[in-house]
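User: Um, what's this?
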Amino acid sequence: MKSTTHVWRIFLLIFIVGIAGFGAQRLLRPEGFGETGHYRVDSLFEIMDRDPVHRGKEICRECHEEILDVHEKDIHYDVKCEDCHGPGDLHVRFNLGEDDEGISEEDAVMPKEYTLEGCLFCHRKLAARPGTFPQVDPAEHYRFLHVNDPKTRCIECHSPHEPLFLLTKVSSARIHPVIHECSGCHENAPEADHREIPGHPLIFQCSDCHPAVVKDFNKQHHATLRCTACHLFHGENESAGRILKNGNRGFCLLCHEQKPFKDGDGPPLIVPMEHLLEEADITEEDELAKNPMVCLECHLDDIHDSDLLASLGESSDE
């Protein structure tokens, strides 16, 4: 019979290592571990005793009230200041004199430099994100706007605090059923209408509720755009959100303001004050500031038939 000593030696070694490991685990286990779960119970109180590094956006109002008022009005209203600028504890303590001992002016500076990835962290187009969330493919977005420099910064057009130049608060916009787009499920746009496909989920299209407006719009200068390119949709839950009918000149200028990085082959471009002085009865810049809807006063009929909107009770001043 062949010897099995070497086999038993291996099993004995495994047994000894197991016993040693079990004993070490018992000796090294922290006090309180496992009493309320697979963690050390005292760690909860230690975490609670740590000083917070995030202070919340309301404390920012003490020094930056004007900026926060603009921020609260626009589409980034639910984005916290510290989401972009980082933890504000040292900054607040130093500038408000809250136990600032040992905090240098350099330590108290909050980062505010622009980075492309800072914007795309939230707004890069990803299949995993819902279609109602604002997202872009940078290359596709720049082609649409005829931007000739791929290194152009987002903030050349969009202010982080007021990205859409909304006239009124998002919360005051009308509640609207959720807007579904084919691209939310399909990689390529289907050729058939969804209503022709048996068993297809029911979805709403703009023409279902606004047939006359959509029919008229298809004859206008902006007919190549989707309705939601201007009437942005801000989803609040799975079935509803708010439709933003923004008539502010700042929103129009996102596409139509002449910039050095635009090649001029896209939408018509203007230098705002030069255009107004030439075409409108406006002679001073402060007059422009008093009328944020100055673009629609002349160009509403290039977008929608104003008489049609009036007859339907549609408003263009949100």
Summary: The chain has a mean pLDDT of 85.
